[in-house]
Amino acid sequence: MIKQLFTSESVTEGHPDKVCDRISDTVLDTILEQDPHARVACETAVTTGLVLIMGEISTSCYVDIPKIAREVIKDIGYSGNEQGFDGDSCAVITSIDEQSPDIAMGVNNAWEVRDSARDDSQNGAGDQGMMFGFACDETPELMPMAISLAHKLAKQLSKVRRDGTLPYLRPDGKTQVTVEYVDGKPTRVDTVVVSNQHSADVAMDKLRADITKHVIEPVIPAGLLLGTKYFINPTGRFVVGGPQGDSGLTGRKIIVDTYGGYGRHGGGSFSGKDPTKVDRSAAYAARHVAKNIVAAGLAGRCEVQLAYAIGVAQPVSVNVNTFGTGKVDDEALARAVYKVFDLTPTAIIRDLDLRKPIYRQLTAFGHMGREDLGVSWEKTDKTDALLAALTAI
After folding, report:
1. In the beta sheet, which residues pair with residue 321?
2. d(CA 140, CA 135)
3. 369: alpha, beta or left, given left = phi > 0 and alpha = psi -120 to 50?
4. Which residues lie closer than 8 Å to 203 by C-beta, 6 or more apart?
5. How many Å apart are CA 45 and CA 23, to the nearest integer?
6. pTM tops 0.70, yes or no
7. What is the pLDDT of residue 392?
8. N or C: which terminal CB in the chain sees fewer CB atoms within 10 Å?
9. Residue 26, beta-bridge partner list
10. C-beta atoms surrounding 248 within 10 Å
């Protein structure tokens, strides 16, 4: 019997980095509502009393970026002076350029068709890099258990704050879950860590009891809470939080956004990027591929790596790794993936319907495993095609 522990974390929408992600993706969504073919790379930084929004945006429409930022901040819950950061009074500075023409040249017209008659129907990748997708059979949504539970705890923290169940909670919060594996299978939750910003007048004993009752116990199945250790606001005080307590930056929670460290990561962030950026779109596509492989019963655990060259449409490599859980060998699975999935940027955008304003909703509680949002990369619509392709190989 081999016992191992694995830990993942999540954060609420009021965490400083997530404030930035939400501003960046709300700018993106607002532009896509008017101009679905816009090129957007929008990044945000926040600190006490200050929001800086920067990047490269090429679009035919106009959006009021400072107004968007203020509305996002207030919707998250940062209004008034109590929390040290206020959507009405903070300074908002913007520094926006257009997309570089050197990048646009490769995206507009892929390397594969550049020497022929111009063909704008085939886009090249917006950058070089590698993207990973992952799926496993530990949860119904085919996500690793630790990150799945951490996200659900963070979502519940937000819920009980917003619906008034725990009115003394404030927007900034973090969760962490450690799962014990026995012979590679998750068996129990070893440790739960929850830290949430709160008003100055709440007693710590009450906060800890309330979070146990209203957050942890409704989320984590009782059968997994076996000798579980709880650390709830372990410092004893978390009044100063949000951008007053710590600066924030778009794209600094990429492990929270994906698989909690259980699968590898190419390093590129998602938020604020339109889908021609393969950092975002190809990561969604890789998740779609991996999830369909596991859903088809072809593996219990699957990681897919895609790699691209800037301005080139076809991926330079596709790698499938099932970590010894595959029903067929990984090379055969990779060949089947090539047959079933078109992984060029144009096809990914088309097949996953990525030019819609769907991104703001993904900025908290993860981009993967979001069956609750009905996002296209979570569909298991290619299982039959994969099985058929393997039969033909």
Report:
1. 303
2. 11
3. left
4. none
5. 10
6. yes
7. 83
8. N
9. none
10. 23
- Edge-first strand order for the sheet with 317-321 is 129-136, 301-308, 317-321
Q: How big, in percent rounded to 5, are the helix, strand and coil portions of the chain?
A: 35, 25, 40
Residue 337, token pair as written in the block: 């993936």
Helices (H) and strands (E) in the chain, counts: 12, 11
Is residue 118 very low, low, confident or very high in pLDDT (cuts 50, 70, 90)?
very low
Phi, psi of 27 (to 5 degrees): -60, -45
Phi, psi of 371 (to 5 degrees): -60, -25
| Spacing of C-alpha 281 from chain mean position | 12
> Counting every residue, how long is the chain?
393
Structure tokens at 29: 């969504």
Which residue in this structure is represented by tokens 């009782």?
A: 222
Q: What is the pLDDT of residue 100?
A: 74
Contact 12, 331 (CB under 8 A): no
For 80-107, the pLDDT digits (tens) are 766 778 999 999 999 999 887 766 665 6
The 10 Å Cβ neighbour count of residue 72 is 24
CA dist 85 → 50, 73, 109, 170, 322 (Å): 8, 9, 44, 12, 46
Q: Where are the alpha helices (DSSP H) in 223-369?
A: 242-245, 254-257, 278-295, 330-340, 345-351
Q: What type of residue sits at position 26?
A: T
Burial of 65 (0-12, 13-18, 19+ CB in 10 A): buried
CA–CA dist 187, 119 (Å, integer): 54
Name the amino acid, one letter, at 265.
H
Helix (H) or strand (E) holding 118: none
User: What is the gyration radius of the CA atoms in the chain, in angstroms?
Assistant: 22
103, two tokens: 């990048």
Mark out the alpha helices in the chain (DSSP H runs): 16-34, 65-76, 101-108, 145-162, 204-211, 217-219, 242-245, 254-257, 278-295, 330-340, 345-351, 383-392
